[in-house]
Predict the 3D structure of the following.
Amino acid sequence: MSKKWFVLAMVLVMATTLLTGCLSSEKKPEAKPDPAKAAATGKKVIRISIGLNEVHPEYLGLKKFKEEIDKKLPGKYDIQLYANAQLGDDVKTTEAVRMGNLEMTGPSSSPLTGIVKELGVFDLPFLFPSTEIAYKVMDGPAGQQLLDKMEEKGLKGLAYWENGFRHLTNSAREVKSPEDVKGLKIRVMQNPIHLATWKALGANPTPMPFSELFTAMQQKTVDGQENPIPTIYLSKYSEVQKFVTLTGHVYTPHILIIGKKLWDSLPKEDQKVFQQAAYDARDHVRKVSKEMNDSQTAKLKEAGMTVTVLTPAQLKAFQDVVKPVYDEYTEKIGKSTVDSILAEVKKVSAK
Ligand code: KDG
């Protein structure tokens, strides 16, 4: 073979090798999962998404929940925790759980009233006089009935965790009376009763997902917001808010939710472990949340905020102004639900 033909042949061989090599890399089938490896890790992935950050009591509760599942059902579930609304805000993640595109979430009850209107009872202002009474009512038969109503909507509510009593913050002025609220642009959760309550107080309320709130306050799109102390402190609202008034106008629960279809697919024994883990983590969240409430109010002062404690007469002025919200929303929530919760509050308060 002459030298010229030899070189040509070599070029052809190299070109063919390169070409088939490229093709083969382009056409190489996806590496099939190694059956042995898949079996080894064959855990069921359970993703849980919340809107708050990793130092908030709710996330600490998720860690406790995960710990208990890992301990009692070793190797069965890969519980993955997502904070800061990484997988969406309360409304989005709840819809995703309903559709089976996400396994679990822990929203406030308030944005869920579009799915289960009766949950709106928790948004009635000044419903619960204390956390102890809130716990007894939520953890009792009347609270359980509300969780049961979620099931026909594709959601299994496992337990009420503590978000807490909500307080007003703002960047404009100290608030001691409804008069001081007039005209303030206040972010509220996506819930008609919260909207009505702040309208009754003379504010200019704006519904907004939680993950957009800090930026809105930073850019002064809103003057203020209302959330429990741990959220105010741990989300560093003192950086963008000057005043906090301890209104305690609503006690909001978070609800730990799992998709109903997924729940029904779990073995009964596993359901028992999940349910107990939800209760144990609930109790942990409540304990941590109380400790934080007690310690962090002072820390907000140290951070430069003006903390206003209302006198009984000042608090009554707020309570009187928002009373019509009960009349406006009792029928919309469901009179039987409102009556049964109010009866429970009266009963446990009397003990
Ligand atoms: O994870 C829950 C939060 O997203 C939210 O519910 C917190 O109370 C809250 C709010 O104001 O949106």
In short: The radius of gyration is 26 Å. Residues 53 and 210 are 11 Å apart (CA to CA). The chain is about 50% helix and 15% strand. Residues 15-39 have pLDDT under 50 and may be disordered.
